[in-house]
Amino acid sequence: MPTNLAEQDHKMIRIMSTLKQQPTPDGSQPPVNRFKKIIDHVARQTVDRCWHCGTCSAGCPFVEHMDLLPNHVIRLVQLNQREAALKCHTIWICVGCHTCSTQCPNSIDIASVMDALRQLAIHDGVIDTETDIYNFHRYVYQSIQKHGRLNKLEALSRFKLGSGQIFSDLQAGLKMLTRGKLDVLPHNIDDRGALADIFAHYDERRRSFDTHE
Ligand code: SF4
Ligand code: SF4
Question: Whole-model pTM?
């Protein structure tokens, strides 16, 4: 969804105006921001260090395709806006290139925050934007889980069948096949036990979402 700075700003202003209309609790203590606690824990970051200088957003090569700027998303986490953050397109458009992370003056790894948000969106079952991107992630993940390395032909075939776009990119696919860029048969790694341990570790981390609820 190509967009521009004005649209991204308007969307953020709309979210912020909704926020202002929410009733404030009577007590002086603000409610605990469990959403931020989960994201900080999973991404191993402290999003409150962000002072919104905008450096991450200025350097992101995919920003024009996002509905919110990367630092807008960080702000939503700081403000406990779980639904708005998990439903935005930005977290799926982000390719995890780490350009933003290397430029942040406060050393916040924004790419890891985006990754944590994607994981939480999957955990919450909130995947109603960019489902093709989510499915692509899923098929790549499953191929690596099965073989220990990515079998591109398998992941791409499953993605194409699932999305119903069987013949799109056919020429490119055939070219890659004839040039030996796509392995027809998967190559499995030898140490399947180590592979199972790695995925068990990440299953355990995913369960930590629930312990922080
Ligand atoms: S570069 Fe860092 S401090 Fe600046 S807005 Fe982005 S996350 Fe916040
Ligand atoms: S990691 Fe994501 S948000 Fe950061 S620069 Fe790359 S695409 Fe943009």
Answer: 0.85
